[in-house]
Amino acid sequence: MGRPIEFNPEEVLENAMRAFWEQGYCATSMADLTSATNLKPGSLYAAFKSKQGLLLAALDHYGQRSRERLQQTLTEAASPLAGIRSYFQQLTEVNPATNQSCFLVNTVLELARKDEAIRSHINRHFDEIELLFREALHNAQQAGELSAEKDPDALAAFLMSNIWGLRVLLGTAPSKQRLKSVVDQLLEQLK
């Protein structure tokens, strides 16, 4: 009987996520992953079954954190639209010089067209995030904060599309002013 695997799953997923995020899935070797996680290949395979299994777990780790961050922003805001505005304002506060786009979006661009399992996995996270926006927009409408003429479902999809675009734009190291002007235009749709 083999020894039980002993490691901190959060730490391993965080470190694996960083490796995949910085280099991309295809360019990240098992040597890179063992170095990043301080685990031997056998331990990684025993815990995650494959390199793709580790990627999917890292995507789940990132997706959960993204949803929690959005949920917290929406919950702490004075109103539903204030929460959405705050979330988009936070995107402008990211340091564009780091050239770090969204891990989910990066993975979509690299792999999702070729791999149904990865596409399906990422779409689940995107759908859950979009649902948070949809609920906030419905709440804003019920509170009279958002015009009754607006379609919360379509607006939530619009916000998601713009998040993807903003995340790609962040990868080009735009000026803070350019990023702010894009977000300002986007937020005009919430009036």
Describe the structure.
The chain is an all-alpha fold. It contains nine helices and no strands. It has helices at residues 9-23, 30-37, 41-48, 51-76, 80-92, 103-112, 116-142, 152-170, 176-187.
In terms of topology, how is this protein built?
Layout (H helix, E strand, L loop, with lengths): L8 H15 L6 H8 L3 H8 L2 H26 L3 H13 L10 H10 L3 H27 L9 H19 L5 H12 L4
Helix pairs in contact: 1-2, 1-4, 3-4, 4-5, 4-7, 5-7, 5-9, 6-7, 7-8, 8-9
Give a short overview.
By secondary structure, this protein is an all-alpha fold. Helix content is 72%, strand content 0%. The termini are far apart.
Helicity level, as a percent range? over 70%
What is the tally of beta strands?
A: 0
Distance between the termini: 63 Å
User: What kind of sheet is the major sheet?
Assistant: none
Beta fraction of the residues?
A: under 5%
Strand-and-helix sequence, N→C? HHHHHHHHH
Cα gyration radius (Å):
19 Å
Q: In DSSP terms, counting alpha (H) and pi (I) runs of 4 or more, how many helices? A: 9
Low-confidence stretches: none
Overall mean pLDDT stands at 91
The helix/strand class is: mainly alpha
Name the overall outline.
elongated
